[in-house]
Every structure is written in structure tokens, then in C-alpha cells.
Amino acid sequence: MAHLAAGLARRWCPSSLQVVNFPVVQLHVSLRAMRASHTEFENAMNQVKLLKKDPGNEVKLKLYALYKQATEGPCNMPKPGVFDLISKAKWDAWNALGSLPKETAKQSYVDLVSSLNSSSKSSGQVEPRADSKPPGYETLVVTSEDGITKIMLNRPTKKNAMNPQMYHEIMLALEAASKDESSITVLTGSGDYYSSGNDLTNFTDIPSGGVQEKAKNGAILLRDFVGCFIDFPKPLIAVVNGPAVGIAVTTLGLFDAVYATDRATFHTPFSHLGQSPEGCSSHTFPRIMSPSKATEMLIFGKKLTAREACAQGLVTEVFPDSTFQKEVWTRLKAYAKLPPNAMRISKQVIRNKEKEKLHAINAEECSVLQERWLSDECMNAVVNFLSRKAKL
Ligand SMILES: CCCCCCCCCCCCC/C=C/C(=O)SCCNC(=O)CCNC(=O)[C@H](O)C(C)(C)COP(=O)(O)OP(=O)(O)OC[C@H]1O[C@@H](n2cnc3c(N)ncnc32)[C@H](O)[C@@H]1OP(=O)(O)O
């Protein structure tokens, strides 16, 4: 263990690693904490030591913050003085994670390290604009202007399918948005899709602990992910720029408003996939659209057009695709000028009534899904999807 601690410390703070415009971040590793870490987590720490190139200070700060959050929980250090730049940078990075659960931070650390090992930018991704937030996100573009923080899913070549890294980055982005200066937060997609839901390749890389462990970790990830939408304190708006599938549809029931282009469709093929509803949709959909309409979507997999979804109450308003972005953003900028505390408090008055119930429903849905993922029905459906191109 000691050599590992020394290795990590040496890796990120050798004098040769002089990096422009940012002090080199010293990575302090506590032996006590490492003994408690999970196999994957320990492997990831090993991989950090073996990285061939310096990932840059932003990423190193993120690694540091996620490591501390995973091993010690929310930031418990006194805020350093302004002149202690290195400690201040580290403190800021860790503190920004707020109350992110240890499990989530641990998984984010593992995913970040694996993305550092194998990430390659795919074509068509939107490059973060100069005025967007510091580029610490691989699968999102997050910008903040006119009182609006916009979180844009940015895997357009994969129809913005959500892989573990995207789940974690959305949680981190929501955590940051809940604390920033903006008054409303928007989730949208880049490219022609809002999101095709869970990335079905998530079912492929089975860890050493086996498929049961993968399902358990997946259920934890899903519970934390949906929990972030349940607890989000500011008005949360979905700008559905195209078709939405699976979890991208079910979580809409936890948004405060949903605006869609008339090109959008809404599809929850859970039975086809051998799976079951998530995102609290087992509760929100019957309440929003009536039990029988919810059955048609969640059990029979009926795909809705934008206008049908609006008629059923899942979508707030539909706009012609040609004027969608202009109309929606004009409206959102006007909303964002309203008194932020009044909006936040009003949302709390509405949401607090059922927050506890939603968390219980979320936990139940995740527990059922954890079993479903191990079923033949689910495995066969995933294999069919992943092998469909091979048949062409
Ligand atoms: C053993 C335990 C495992 C546990 C796993 C845990 C996971 C983490 C926990 C979170 C779980 C949340 C639960 C969520 C459930 C859901 O969201 S269910 C819905 C899942 N989504 C789908 O079933 C959609 C699958 N995709 C499609 O049907 C089609 O791609 C499309 C969306 C209808 C688009 O079709 P088309 O226009 O023909 O484009 P394609 O060529 O198919 O797609 C372009 C490329 O994008 C890839 N892609 C698209 N969607 C996905 C996806 N969801 N997963 C993976 N990949 C996707 C597609 O393969 C293409 O890739 P290339 O072939 O490389 O170009």
C-alpha cells in the first residue's frame, strides 16, 4: 500500500510536471482510506499511476476531488486562505461536489480514469464554447448565461445514449447547477436526438465480480441518478430537441416543464427489452396521463408523437421544429429573469409534498430492475440489439 501511496503522490507532483497557468496539483492519498476502497476503485488508482500523459490540471483536480469524496464524503477541510493557491484549488474542487454520495463519487472516479485510458473524441461532437464552463465534461457541454445553466448531452453519434460516464457527469452538472448563479436549469441534446436512453453497451463489460455485481452497481447508479432529479432545487426544464427513449422519457415526469419539437417522439420499450419502468415513472406516468395511457407506454411500449405526449400531459408544449429553438429560448430567458428565490421556494412547496415518496418509488424500481437485468428476456433483447448491425 505504501508504495502505491508514494507512487500516486510522485506521479502527479514531480517537478518535471510544470503545467502552464495552473499550479501542479498535489494528490495526497490516505492509506487508511485506500484499504477501504473497492477493487475497481483500487484498480483505477493503479491506472492513474500508469497514465501515459498528463491529463491536465482540470482533470487532476477532478480526480483529487472525486477521490476525497469517495473516501471521506463531503468536503470536511477548513477553507484555505486565498494565497494558498494549491490548497484553495483542491478545496474548491472537492467542495463543489457537495453531498454527492460516496458510491457515486467512487464510480465517477473509476469512469473518469477509464475514459482517460481509452477516450477518443468521436466526430460530430459539439466542442465546448469559449464561454462555457471549464471543460471537465467528456459527454456534456455545460454553459451558463442569461440566468440559465444549459446541460447538453453530447454523444450525438450515439444518439446521446447514456453510458456510465454520462450518468455521472449529469449528476455532477446538476450538483453544480444547484449551487451556481443561474435561476433555472435546462437539459437538452445535441444532434438529432434528445437521447436514446441507456447505452445498451453498458451490459457488455462485465467486471471481475460478475454480472450480479454489475447489476448491483447499476442499480446504485440508477438510484443516485434519478435521486438527483427528485431533489433538484431549481426549476428544471427539458428542451426535447428530438426523439427520446427509455430513461430519457421516464425522467421527464420529474421535470418542472417539458418543451418539445414536433419532431420528437417518446418511447419506453421496457417490455421489449425485458426490463421495467424507472425514473419514478411507475408513479408519475399513471398520475400524469391515467393508468391505462401509462400502461400503453410503459408495458406495451407504445411510441408517442410529441403532440400525443402533450395531449397526455407528459409534454408541456410542442413547437414547430423550424421555430422550436428560437421560441423556447426566448421564453426561457424571460422566465430566468423572475425572482430566483421565489421560483426555488415555490418549486420546493410543490415538490416537497412527495419527495420522500418519490425516493421510495425510485428505490423500489431500481431493486426490480436489478433483477430484470439478470433475466434471459433482458439479456436476449440486449444481444439482439447489439448484434443487429452484424446481421446487415
Ligand atoms: C448486467 C447488468 C447490466 C446493468 C447495466 C446498468 C446500466 C446503468 C444503469 C442505468 C439504467 C437505466 C435504465 C434505462 C433504461 C432505458 O433507457 S431502456 C432504453 C434503451 N435504449 C434503447 O433501447 C434504444 C436503442 N437504440 C435504438 O433502438 C436505435 O439506435 C434508435 C435510437 C431507434 C436510433 O436508430 P437509428 O436512427 O437507426 O440509428 P442507429 O444506427 O441505430 O444509431 C446510431 C448509433 O448510435 C448507437 N446507439 C443508438 N442508441 C443506442 C443505445 N441506446 N445504446 C447503445 N448504442 C446506441 C447505435 O448502435 C449506432 O452506433 P454505430 O452502429 O456505432 O453507428
From TrEMBL:
Q: Which reaction does it catalyse?
A: a (3E)-enoyl-CoA = a 4-saturated (2E)-enoyl-CoA; (3E)-tetradecenoyl-CoA = (2E)-tetradecenoyl-CoA; (3E)-nonenoyl-CoA = (2E)-nonenoyl-CoA; (3E)-octenoyl-CoA = (2E)-octenoyl-CoA
Q: Recorded E.C. number(s)?
A: 5.3.3.8
Tell me the InterPro entries matching this sequence.
Answer: Acyl-CoA-binding_prot_CS, Acyl-CoA-binding_protein, Acyl-CoA-binding_sf, ClpP/crotonase-like_dom_sf, ECH/Chromodomain_protein, Enoyl-CoA_hydra/iso, Enoyl-CoA_hydra_C, FERM/acyl-CoA-bd_prot_sf
Q: Where is this region: Disordered?
A: 117-138
Q: Cellular location of this protein?
A: Mitochondrion; Peroxisome matrix
According to the lineage, what is the superkingdom? Eukaryota
Membrane spanning residue stretches: none
The ACB domain covers 37-122
Q: Which Gene3D superfamilies match?
A: 1.20.80.10, 2-enoyl-CoA Hydratase, Chain A, domain 1 (3.90.226.10), Lyase 2-enoyl-coa Hydratase, Chain A, domain 2 (1.10.12.10)
Q: Isomerase: present as a keyword of the record?
A: yes
Q: What is its main location?
A: mitochondrion
Q: What GO terms are given for molecular function?
A: delta(3)-delta(2)-enoyl-CoA isomerase activity; fatty-acyl-CoA binding
Q: Pathway, according to UniProt?
A: Lipid metabolism; fatty acid beta-oxidation
One Gene Ontology cellular component: mitochondrion
What Pfam families does the database record attribute to this sequence? ACBP, ECH_1
Q: Which UniProt keywords apply?
A: Acetylation, Isomerase, Mitochondrion, Peroxisome, Phosphoprotein, Transit peptide
Its job: Able to isomerize both 3-cis and 3-trans double bonds into the 2-trans form in a range of enoyl-CoA species. Has a preference for 3-trans substrates.
Query: Which family is this sequence assigned to?
Result: In the C-terminal section; belongs to the enoyl-CoA hydratase/isomerase family.
Cross-referenced PANTHER family: ENOYL-COA DELTA ISOMERASE 2 (PTHR43684:SF1), PTHR43684
Q: What is this protein called?
A: Enoyl-CoA delta isomerase 2
Organism listed in the record:
Microcebus murinus (Gray mouse lemur)
